[in-house]
UniProtKB/TrEMBL annotation:
GO cellular component, one term: SCAR complex
UniProt xrefs under Pfam families: Nckap1
Region: Disordered, residue numbers: 638-659
Organism the protein comes from: Cyprinodon variegatus (Sheepshead minnow)
Biased composition (Basic and acidic residues): 646-659
Protein's UniProt name: NCK associated protein 1 like
PANTHER family, per database record: NCK-ASSOCIATED PROTEIN 1 (PTHR12093), NCK-ASSOCIATED PROTEIN 1-LIKE (PTHR12093:SF9)
UniProt-listed GO biological process terms: cell migration; cell projection assembly; cortical actin cytoskeleton organization; neuron projection morphogenesis
């Protein structure tokens, strides 16, 4: 008869089902109480009359007489039916669960089952779990305010659709009414079960007090210490009640509190019951039903007993226990947490050093995790729900990070050395447990057939285990043994059982030990879940975040902060198949918390790293050449033995003075920052990655992301660009600062395993683009803007002169003091630094912006050519007729404007040429083996090569900073100006006439007093020497775009320019020949700069003697005669 009851199977299934129903009820409560998640049909204005009417009349709702109140449901009956169906079905699940629980509890009472946690642990635990789960479901159901509206609306819609109520509706309505005051009804229901429940609870009278000791007794007993008895270190940790040693404390308290609430009669009749109950009442103020739903222990118990006859003493006990909790509990648990922090750290250090001890001492690990979890859960539920009081500090813990960290470390150790634990326990089961069990069975004087079969199977299964299975990495599945042991407990715990378990304590002890050992073989992960999962923190985000904040403010806790995001990996384990809708909410919350914690840790770490880098940069900055003037001056004064000038200020310390220490114990600011960095980076040692639901989280990537963001911000800040005042940091200074930061960042690798090289490359590569990954301006953007808006704009108005001799731009001394000196931003070292900073990509962007300015000037030049087209055509045809040319010249307008615009183009191209040369130098230094083939490829190009191939090769060479005969960027820019409407021949005509325009306008330059050639600068004071570059490169680009012969057109230009300049020599008495020689040199510069013209061509149309005399004249002022 008892074998057919299947008590073990029913208890297992109903507990699992009950957990699902409980989670489902909690989810419905949360959904209905949250305005953002509340079902739409409960919040609609049109539904308000129906909802009010249903709540008022429930469950006897008149669907026909009051149709006016239910009109809104009538209109949307199908939608309402569909929307409320899942809620209705969930409430039906509660009825179904209740029916099965009633049936099973009655069966257990009829069988007069024996319960003792020390003997039939699984049977007793499942029985007590079922009672608390069922009670929690009913209480949770009573807390759903909208349950009547949900069920009533469903039934209304059902009747309106099908013409009749749902068959289950009457029972459901009756259940809602019965459980409006759940504890009263539940107490009535459990009256018949008092004997069984009380017996099960009283079996905790030895276990619970032993688990609920103060920290002083733990410390005196050296609990969890492997070092206290070194001789016994290798002995297996065993006891008679192994599973009870890591049974959660809050589970036992929930059993006791809820059990005696339901079956309270023994509190007045049994002293043991009273003592156990009072001990549980002194343990705290709150217990969890599920998630964040709590039972206010003293309030609910007092309200329940209030009004009952004979319970006045119990109410006094409740008040006394509550006062005890408020006075002592916070401090007691604080001390426990302090003890556990030290104990877990010691345990972890020993096991990490000797992982082989995980086999015999696995029970210690489970106990340590379970004890720690108990303290975390207690603090969480009390922190959230605690009333305001003076001793609130006892309910905050700024060192929680350390406890969580060591818990995670122990969990990680068990996972890492799972094979060690398996290997040990497989041998233990096969070579000791199987033999011991066999001996125990042999010593039994009676053994019925069913029990004999089960026990024989235990022995045979355990004996068959071998170490080879571990070596071959076979999957173990010993759940069958544990289920059969639960069945055996059920068979042997009923009244008048042929084999009463209470008469065979040795069998119970051996099987309880075997059960633990089998779990160490095939379900370590499940054991870790039972003893250390902290998914409750997902439902207390405010407390969780507060714990993190408090810990992060403590210097000594920074090395443990990574435990908080790692805890988020637990949250995926708390879902249930009966409530899949909750999973998405949990996933979002888990990821939000995880990302928040990781970002905060990364921000703290990156802040410290950047502060150290800033300090290092300041030290490196002191060593820059620009700061050595004072030292040189001081040395000079010492050498001349002159007294130092008194300025009334303290002499500056030399670089390196900060390293001289008189006392090593005195910590400098840098020392403190390095210490903090060490602490924060130690936190990352907890693990390289972890899973949060289906997401792989890599903490180091968050740090790299923050470092990338901070480094980008610092680089932009160091650039110091001010658009209003046109101020910017010199490229060489910025480069020195970046190098200081990057070298300091590379030292981070000695603290933590991160790819700093990848970080630096990512940041610096983004700076070579106009915008970074966040859409913000970069170094490339700022320097391009500055060189165009500040330097080249002033160079266009001759305030800044291009100096070929020194390969830079030089500021001219003017009355208005300039905000910067051009030579400090445009010499070779600065432009090389610029090329190093912005690279080929940045140079390409700079070039594109320069080309835009050139094309805008070319557009204006074309307009001027079109205005003077007829005159220019005549001048082209009559250039060898001086009288005709003189007349035409008088009619020509805008010559100065043409030369001015061409000079601007020349200045831009000269700057571009200098920048490209510096880029070439940098690339030769970084990748010489790449540059040589590119130069070889460029040299291979001949005039006969196809123009498309030529431009492709030149584009490659130009990107590397190598000078080409034809500028591909300029060709592309000129080509983009040509519209489809304008024929190529027309464009060609305009280009030729532009050269004519320039040639005939050259004599005008002699009128400008600034056209004087300066030998010091190697150019003219008004930048007209840049015309050489402008004419050559612009002509080459225009005629390439039009597919015409460049050399032929430049020869024509040279002939026309020579003719007009020679006419300057005839005006001997006029003032406009003052700078004639300087203008003559311009013709020589054009030929020298051109790859298409030669000196022979020049001499054929312009006498060399004039050039020689011109050079002699312009150099007269610089001739030094030696006496």
């Amino acid at each position: 008869m008892d074998y057919q009851q299947k008590l073990a199977e029913k208890l297992t299934i109903l507990n699992e089902r009950g957990n699902g129903v409980l989670i489902r009820m909690n989810y419905i409560k949360k959904i209905c109480s949250d305005p953002k998640l509340r079902p739409g049909f409960l919040t609609e204005k049109a539904m308000e009359p129906a909802v009010k009417y249903i709540n008022k009349k429930f469950p006897n709702i008149d669907f026909r007489g009051n149709i006016q109140n239910l009109t809104s449901i009538q209109r949307q009956k199908s939608e309402v039916l569909a929307a409320t169906a899942s809620y209705y079905d969930s409430f039906l699940d509660v009825i179904e669960f209740r029916d099965h629980v009633y049936e099973l509890l009655n069966t257990i009472d009829a069988c007069q089952c024996f319960f003792d946690i020390a003997f039939n642990f699984d049977f007793t635990k499942n029985y007590l779990d079922l009672i608390t789960t069922y009670t929690s479901v009913i209480v949770m159901l009573s807390r759903i305010d909208d349950k009547k509206a949900l069920v009533g609306m469903f039934n209304c819609a059902h009747e309106m659709t099908n013409g009749s109520s749902d068959p289950s509706y009457p029972r459901l309505g009756q259940m809602f009414l019965e459980y409006d005051h759940p504890w009263k009804k539940l107490t009535e229901e459990f009256g018949p079960h008092t004997k069984s429940v009380t017996a099960a609870l009283l079996s905790l009278k030895t276990i619970y007090p032993r688990r609920n000791l103060p920290a002083e007794q733990w410390r005196s007993a050296q609990l969890l210490s492997l070092l206290s008895t070194p001789a016994a270190m290798l002995d297996p940790a065993c006891c008679e009640t192994m599973a009870c040693e890591y049974l959660p404390l809050d589970v036992m308290e929930r059993w006791i509190i809820i059990g005696f609430l339901l079956c309270h009669s023994s509190l007045n009749t049994n002293q043991a019951s009273l003592e156990l109950w009072k001990m549980a009442l002194r343990s705290g103020l709150f217990l969890n039903y599920t998630r964040d739903e709590v039972l206010n222990i003293h309030k609910v118990t007092e309200d329940h007993f209030d009004g009952m006859k004979g319970y006045s003493k119990r109410i006094a006990d409740i008040k006394e226990c509550r006062e005890h909790v408020l006075a002592n509990c916070g401090a007691m648990h604080r001390e426990r947490r302090h003890f556990l922090r030290v104990a877990l750290k010691e345990l972890y250090k020993v096991l990490e050093d000797e992982p082989g001890l995980l086999g015999p001492k696995a029970l210690f690990v489970m106990m340590a995790l379970s004890f720690s979890r108990d303290e975390v859960l207690w603090l969480v539920r009390h922190s959230e729900n605690m009333p305001k009081m003076k001793t609130l500090d006892d309910y905050n813990d700024n060192q929680m990070a350390e406890l969580l960290f060591h818990m995670e470390k122990l969990r990680g150790l068990m996972r890492k050395y799972n094979h060690v634990v398996q290997r040990y326990h497989v041998q233990y089961l096969a070579q000791y447990d199987a033999l011991l069990l066999n001996d125990t069975i042999q010593n039994m004087y009676v053994c019925p057939e069913e029990e004999s079969v089960l026990m024989s199977s235990f022995v045979s299964t355990l004996s068959a285990l071998s170490i080879k299975q571990v070596d071959n990495k076979e999957e173990f599945d010993l759940r069958g043994i544990r289920m059969d042991w639960l069945r055996l407990q059920a068979y042997t715990s009923v009244n008048k059982a042929p084999l009463p378990l209470k008469d065979y304590p040795d069998l119970a002890k051996v099987m309880n030990m075997i059960q633990f050992h089998t779990r160490m073989v095939d379900s370590v992960e499940e054991m870790l879940y039972e003893t250390s999962e902290l998914s409750i923190l997902c439902f207390y985000p405010r407390v969780f975040e507060k714990m993190f904040t408090q810990s992060s403010e403590e210097m000594t806790m920074k090395r443990y902060l990574m435990s908080f995001p790692f805890i988020c990996s637990h949250f995926s384990q708390c879902g249930h198949p009966l409530c899949p809708e909750e999973t998405e909410i949990l996933e979002k919350r888990s990821l939000r918390l995880c990302v928040t914690f990781l970002e905060q840790i990364a921000k703290q770490t990156s802040s410290v790293v950047m502060e150290i880098c800033a300090e290092q940069r300041n030290l490196n900055d002191q060593l820059l050449p620009k700061h050595c003037a004072e030292s040189i001056s001081a040395a000079r004064y010492r050498k001349q033995k002159k007294p130092m000038p008194k300025k009334g200020e303290v002499q500056k310390e030399k670089p390196g003075a900060e390293s001289l220490r008189k006392d090593r114990t005195v910590a400098t600011n840098v020392d403190k920052m390095h210490m903090m960095l060490t602490e924060l980076c130690s936190s990352y040692s907890l693990g390289s990655d972890f899973m949060v639901f289906e997401h792989v989280v890599v903490p180091a990537e968050f740090l790299l992301s923050q470092l990338e963001m901070r480094l980008t911000e610092i680089i932009i800040k160091m650039t110091n660009y001010n658009q209003t005042t046109q101020e910017i940091t010199r490229p060489s200074d910025l480069l020195a600062g970046i190098r200081s930061y990057t070298s300091c960042l590379h030292s981070l690798a000695s603290y933590i395993s991160v790819d700093v090289t990848r970080l630096v490359k990512n940041v610096l590569l983004q700076q070579t683009q106009p915008l970074d990954s966040q859409g913000g301006p970069t170094v490339t953007h700022y320097y391009t803007t500055w060189y165009l808006e500040a330097l080249l704009r002033q160079a266009s108005s001759s305030l800044i002169v291009h100096c070929p001799t020194m390969q830079c731009f030089v500021s001219q001394s003017t009355e208005n003091e300039q905000s910067f000196r051009a030579e400090e931003f445009s010499d070779v070292s600065e432009l090389q630094s610029l090329a190093e900073l912005i690279g080929p990509y940045g140079m390409k962007f700079l070039g594109e912006n320069l080309m835009w300015h050139i094309t805008s000037q070319v557009s204006e030049l074309k307009k001027m050519v079109i205005e003077n087209m007829d005159i220019l055509v005549q001048m082209k045809n009559n250039f060898d007729k001086p009288e005709e040319m003189a007349n035409l010249k008088k009619r020509l307008t805008g010559g100065e404007n043409v030369l001015k615009r061409m000079t601007i183009i020349g200045v831009i191209l000269s700057f571009r040429s200098m920048a490209m040369n510096c880029l070439k130098d940098i690339l030769r230094k970084h990748c010489p083996f790449l540059m040589a083939p590119i130069e070889c490829l460029r040299d291979f190009i001949s005039p006969e090569t196809d123009i498309k191939v030529t431009l492709s090769v030149f584009e490659l060479a130009s990107a590397a900073g190598i000078k080409c005969d034809i500028d591909p960027a300029l060709v592309a820019a000129i080509g983009s100006m040509q519209t489809d409407n304008t024929p190529v021949e027309e464009e060609f005509k305009l280009s030729r006439l532009l050269l004519v325009y320039i040639a005939v306008s050259l004599p005008i330059l002699a009128l400008d007093p600034n056209s004087l050639y300066s030998r010091e600068h190697g150019g003219h004071n008004n930048n007209i020497h840049c015309l050489a570059a402008a004419i050559n490169q612009l002509a080459a680009a225009m005629f390439t775009a039009q597919n015409k012969n460049i050399e032929q057109q430049l020869k024509e230009f040279l002939l026309l320019a020579s003719s007009t300049l020679l006419q300057l020599g005839q005006n001997v008495e006029r003032m406009d020949v003052k700078n004639r020689e300087s203008v003559y040199l311009l013709l020589h510069m054009i030929v020298e700069d051109s790859p298409f013209l030669s000196q022979d061509m020049l001499e054929s149309c312009f006498p060399y003697v004039l050039l020689r005399n011109a050079y002699r004249e312009v150099h007269k002022a610089f001739v030094i005669t030696l006496a």
